[in-house]
Amino acid sequence: MAYGDIDAWETTGRIETLVDGIFAIALTLLVLNLSIPQLTNSMSNIAVEDYLIGLIPDLFTYALSFVILAIFWRINHQQFYRIKRANNVLLWITVIWLLFVALVPFSTSLMGGYGETQAANIFFNINLLLIGIFSGLIWYYATKKDFIEELSREKIIELNKLNLMLPIAALIAIGASFIIPAFSTITYLAIPLIKRIIRA
Amino acid sequence: MAYGDIDAWETTGRIETLVDGIFAIALTLLVLNLSIPQLTNSMSNIAVEDYLIGLIPDLFTYALSFVILAIFWRINHQQFYRIKRANNVLLWITVIWLLFVALVPFSTSLMGGYGETQAANIFFNINLLLIGIFSGLIWYYATKKDFIEELSREKIIELNKLNLMLPIAALIAIGASFIIPAFSTITYLAIPLIKRIIRA
Amino acid sequence: MAYGDIDAWETTGRIETLVDGIFAIALTLLVLNLSIPQLTNSMSNIAVEDYLIGLIPDLFTYALSFVILAIFWRINHQQFYRIKRANNVLLWITVIWLLFVALVPFSTSLMGGYGETQAANIFFNINLLLIGIFSGLIWYYATKKDFIEELSREKIIELNKLNLMLPIAALIAIGASFIIPAFSTITYLAIPLIKRIIRA
Amino acid sequence: MAYGDIDAWETTGRIETLVDGIFAIALTLLVLNLSIPQLTNSMSNIAVEDYLIGLIPDLFTYALSFVILAIFWRINHQQFYRIKRANNVLLWITVIWLLFVALVPFSTSLMGGYGETQAANIFFNINLLLIGIFSGLIWYYATKKDFIEELSREKIIELNKLNLMLPIAALIAIGASFIIPAFSTITYLAIPLIKRIIRA
Question: Per the UniProt record, which residue ranges are transmembrane (chains A, B, C, D) (predicted)?
């Protein structure tokens, strides 16, 4: 802010450090959604077994969110491999994107607790939709401002099209929330298909 | 401490790493203020909807604190782009600044729970005031000690003046806490105006 | 994902940053398993002493998990010292490995609470088994794809054999869980012996 | 472990990353000890004021632990500025040191809750004693193994003596815990005096 005029020089090193830090923490905080039962001294082996079996859906949600976050990190990783400069606008698009990324542990715990309700599914899918939109915006803005090096015009346009993939999947999942809430997240398994259609 | 005599050489690399780490964590911990309701097995869709609607003020506080912290990170980012050396004093100013930065998740949760009380607003605004003061001190001290490179005298003085912006906004917000507690944070939206006045 | 075609170039810098971040957080979250007792104002010195003495097994579990995680970090550290390139497959093997690494604070708290039950021991040991397997896979895949530099054929094969060490220890520990649950983790002290047998 | 034979080459980059990560998290977790009171809808301004006034000792403990951790980070920062190589032993001394560093948020919350008891004070001071000892060991071992560059023999010996400073302060604080538990931590303010005596 205060130094707004001297940032044409901006390099991307510290943005990447912040991104990596926030992802590392968001990924690790997902585990906090797995709470161990209250300490009752006389907990038998069978009780622990039952508890662990009941934990399977939560472990699935944990793994799903971990992989989804890793996909977004991966995409950013590849974007900033190509983006060589940044400015204030690009930084703030990235910050808003991170704001929704850091919300994922909360959305995940909401799904873990109330995954069968439509409201929780819509919230979770809107969260992913916004992450997808801002992730796409990072690339779109960076290419428009010529912050990219060594990439052909066709490649850049193709990648811009591929960036629609995750928002489209999220929109379908939001639609699915109105019909079969408990299974809306299955939509994301259709991503390879969406990818093929976009490319066609 | 023990190695106090050999730090004229000090480079700023690891200070920046610590700063980025603390910001990444503080930003991600903000989400812990969004607690999901107790697990009652028979939670209906409408109950989850009501809960999520009731969560809107907390989501707003989350976004506000996220953006404010990002602004401070951004300012530090630009300061250390220019600061080429450091010494013990600069390091400790930065540590005290981080001490108040790391307090923001707590201040935010206080605002989330009791944002309508004057006490919570004063606490939150004093926290931001102290962050603003120490952020300004980092730049003031670094310029005074000639740790800066490639920046004109006028530019440095102008930036020192701009660093008053956030403390002034925080002081106005503290004043506003005595009149309309619940809306004191709106003051920060006046920052662009304060910026123009300082520059005039 | 979206950028899948342009990743032959992949360097390993940001993977290492993510790995280091997740380990730093997982290591530090282990301490959250040490909960202080509820605040009862009249807590006497003797009550605090009793509480701290009762905490000894939890401190032992904390130290054990800290050291085990540090061993895995160490192994990764040395692997990526040698691995000079990466591709999508290697990245995703590493992500799945991290998924199980980030689960360790939970497994540890399960052991802290119910370490005498067979179920908790099996869960903990399976977690370590999976970490060991994916850690070995990272090296196996990287060597198969020739992502390694300056290491002799014999050395690579020897290291592949040594990577079986931790999975074998974990399998023995799983076996031991059926006989003497509370002491299954002692198995890991036999690792130097397993190492010698593999090398023979 | 598995790669034990190929680590003569070891550089210190990733050790420093892990150290910085753990400190950033431990510093930020300290704030979790400041818990906001239960949400009672009718919380008045005076109740929040009373709560915040009652929080002053906890804020003091927060600041004290923040500064103590920053001192240890600072010392490590300066040590590794000089240490140019590492081996397995140095790495594991650092890991054990980090194990006690990561324990500080817990010790601090113990002090926050039961700072007037002797048991809590002894636990807190022993924690600092162990951090001090392992911090000194890092330097002692690195100098003994000639991992240091560009530092005179006299300087190295002087620094080894100065590393006794924190353990001595911790030992005095442990002694003080038996006499005036609630004020044992004041001992650390005597560090500048101890420093002068050691140097004499």
Answer: 21-39, 59-77, 89-110, 122-143, 164-191
Which H or E element spans position B197?
helix B191-199
In the A/D pair of chains, how many CB contacts fall below 8 A? 3
ipTM: 0.82
CB pair distance less than 8 Å for C1 and A159: no
Query: What ranges in D55-117 are assigned the alpha helix state H?
Result: 56-82, 88-101, 104-114
Residue with the two structure tokens 């995409």: A75
Each residue of B88-106: b (16+ CB within 10 Å) or e?
bebbebbbbbbbbbbbbbb
Can you tell me the distance from the alpha carbon of D44 to that of B116, in angstroms, rounded to the nearest whole number? Answer: 9
Question: What is the band of B185 on the pLDDT scale with cuts at 50, 70, 90?
Answer: confident
Q: What angle do CA A24, C14, B70 make, to 5 degrees?
A: 55
Q: How many Å lie between the alpha carbon of B94 and the closest alpha carbon of chain D?
A: 10
- A148 - beta bridge partners? A83
Q: Report d(CA C139, CA C144) in Å as an integer.
A: 8
Compare all CA atoms of chain D with the CA of C77 and give the residue at the minimum distance: D14
> Cα(D131)–Cα(D94) distance, rounded to whole angstroms?
10
For residue C64, give both structure tokens: 């054990």
DSSP D102-126: TTHHHHHHHHHHHTTSHHHHHHHHH
Taking the C-alpha atoms of residue A143 and residue D190, their distance in angstroms, rounded to an integer, is: 58
Instruction: Give the closest residue to C123 by CA, choosing from A64, A55, B171.
Output: A55
- For chain C, positions 115-144, list CB contacts with chain A under 8 A: 117-120, 123
If you average pLDDT over residues A15-40, what whole number do you get? 81
Spatial CA neighbour of C125 closest among C110, C138, C137, C136: C110
DSSP three-state, residue B83:
strand
Q: How far is C171 from A113, CA to CA, in rounded Å?
A: 33
In whole angstroms, how large is the CA radius of gyration of chain B?
Answer: 20
* C-alpha–C-alpha distance, residues C142 and C148, integer Å: 7
d(CA D54, CA A4): 41
The answer to whether D58 and B53 are in contact (CB under 8 A) is no
Which residues, other chains included, contact A183 with Cβ-Cβ below 8 Å and sequence gap of 6+?
Answer: A176
Distance of CA A133 to the CA centre of its chain: 10
Partner-chain contact C113 A44, CB within 8 Å: no
The CA distance from A117 to A33, in Å, is: 18
Could you tell me the maximum CA-CA distance found in chain D, to the nearest angstrom?
Answer: 67
* Polymer length in residues for chain B: 200
* Predicted confidence (pLDDT) per residue in A97-153, tens digit: 999 999 999 998 888 778 888 888 899 999 999 999 999 999 999 888 888 877 777
Residue A65 in tokens: 């969110």
Residue to test with chain A: of C9, C18, C118, most A Cβ within 10 A: C18
CB of D159 closer than 8 Å to CB of D187: no
**φ and ψ at B55, to 5 degrees?**
-85, -10
Cβ(A162)–Cβ(A97) below 8 Å? no
Coil, helix or strand for A165?
Answer: helix
Residue D15 contacts residue D80 (beta carbons within 8 Å): yes
CA-based torsion, A152, A154, A157, A163: positive or negative: negative
- What ranges in chain C are assigned the alpha helix state H? 13-29, 45-54, 56-82, 88-101, 104-114, 118-144, 153-162, 165-179, 191-199
Determine the number of helices (DSSP H) and then strands (DSSP E) in chain A. Answer: 9, 0
Across the range A178-199, mean pLDDT stands at 75
Residue type, A94: T
CB proximity D18 to C under 8 Å:
yes
